[in-house]
Design brief:
The chain is an alpha/beta fold. The protein is built from 10 helices and 17 strands.
Length: about 400
């Protein structure tokens, strides 16, 4: 996928981004006020009204075709993205926090359209800003040639700071990384005002507290706010933390049928059932839909080595899943009717860290939704997970001398 920043986009942004970003901070977060997306004779037009101007950029990406706009920073409020989209050529809009200090809007395109013009104009009387983006229809080959995320040090993450090495690990303590699913521009499942992203962040903080109070655990979260974290970044966070185990937390919703109770997933190329395969495909696709390009893959040698490492690590992950289910069953009395499952979740692909994905419950089921919103029930669930982790830890340490080094 091309990474070229096309002249039209560079021209639009160069005037606004000429000075360092810190010098352009206006002292308050811009508020989204209104906007629209409409078809034009030869494409589409997107308009956003903001309370003030902000540094911004835009680019297009393929597979699927989409327009991505980044801002530093916009507070979207309670806007319903669907109410803004009156264009047949734009399938849907998503907007939200992307990472701390940054916001993102993604428009899924029904057909390939290139950026024809893009401009930000401010009102001298009140400082309000209007962003207008016009898209023109092109063929797929022309769209592909223009597509690609730009690289600009003023927008991308700063260079890594030089820090001291982590202190020596206490072998008696276990380092657990909890991964609250979704976040920011990707709210996950939604039901009756409850979003999976916010609910799992709340539960992750509660579980973190329960594990810390149990003693013997250092607990780290992959995100501690409502912002987007890519699948690769979640796995990297666990590896960088030197995690002894990784637990990804979710509470999905089913479009058809009904499911209730907790289920734990382990990694497998062959999903245990069609529902698990569909769930993994949807979760893995969330990165693409949020504007992240995951098309680059590891080389063949690295893939072979990681596959061998996962083969050795798989029994440890499955044992963790079984102990967690036992703990949950004892604590809350119910798990899913087929609670141990497998699927190709990208977030479970750390080759050297026992990893599971826990569906705490299903927002699409009224009973689970009530439980998930009940702090007392969540405390019971957290206690069950704690008991399962402790049982697994003790067993895993006993088996350690028997494992291949």
């Amino acid at each position: 996928m091309s990474g070229v920043f096309r002249p039209i986009l560079a021209g639009v942004l160069s005037a606004f981004l000429a000075a360092p970003l810190a010098a352009q901070d206006l002292g308050a977060v811009a508020q989204f006020e209104t906007g629209s997306v409409r078809d034009r004779w030869s494409g589409a037009e997107l308009t956003l009204e903001l309370s003030q101007g902000v540094p911004w950029r835009l680019f297009t990406l393929t597979e699927p075709n989409r327009l991505v706009m980044d801002f530093r920073e916009v507070q979207w409020g309670e806007v319903d993205p669907g109410s803004l989209d009156d264009a047949d050529r734009v399938l849907s809009l998503r907007m939200g926090a992307y990472r701390p200090g940054w916001s993102r809007l993604v428009a899924d395109l029904a057909e390939p359209m290139a950026v024809d013009s893009a401009a930000l104009r401010t009102d001298p009387s009140d400082g309000g800003a209007t962003i207008t983006v016009r898209l023109r229809s092109v063929d797929q080959a022309a769209f592909d040639a223009e597509a690609g995320a730009p690289r600009d040090p003023r927008w991308d993450l700063p260079a890594a700071a030089v820090v001291d090495a982590l202190p020596p690990r206490d072998p008696a303590r276990m380092r657990v990384v909890l991964d609250p699913g979704h976040g920011g521009i990707d709210p996950g499942a939604e039901r009756d005002g409850t979003t999976e992203a916010n609910l799992m962040l709340t539960f992750a903080r509660e579980l973190q507290d329960v594990l810390r109070r149990a003693g013997g655990f250092d607990v780290i979260l992959t995100r501690d706010g409502d912002y987007f974290v890519s699948l690769e970044a979640r796995v990297a966070a666990a590896r960088n933390a030197g995690a002894d185990l990784f637990i990804s937390l979710h509470a999905d919703a089913l479009a058809e049928g009904e499911a209730r109770g907790a289920a734990v997933y382990v990694l497998s190329d062959d999903a245990s059932d069609a529902a698990s395969a569909a769930l993994a495909e949807r979760h893995n696709r969330d990165d693409l839909l949020a504007g992240i390009d995951l098309s680059q893959s590891d080389d063949r040698v690295a893939n072979v080595l990681m596959s061998l490492a996962r083969l050795d690590n798989a029994p440890r992950s499955e044992a963790l899943a079984k102990h967690m289910l036992d703990g949950i069953r004892n604590a809350v009395g119910r798990v899913h009717k087929r609670p141990l499952r497998s699927a190709g979740f990208s977030v479970l692909k750390a080759a050297d860290i026992p990893s599971v994905l826990l569906e705490v419950g299903f927002l699409s089921t009224a009973e689970d939704l009530k439980n998930l919103n009940d702090p007392v029930w969540r405390q019971g669930m957290a206690a069950g997970i704690r008991d399962g982790i402790i049982a697994w830890r003790d067993e895993d340490r006993a088996l350690a001398p028997l494992r291949r080094n």
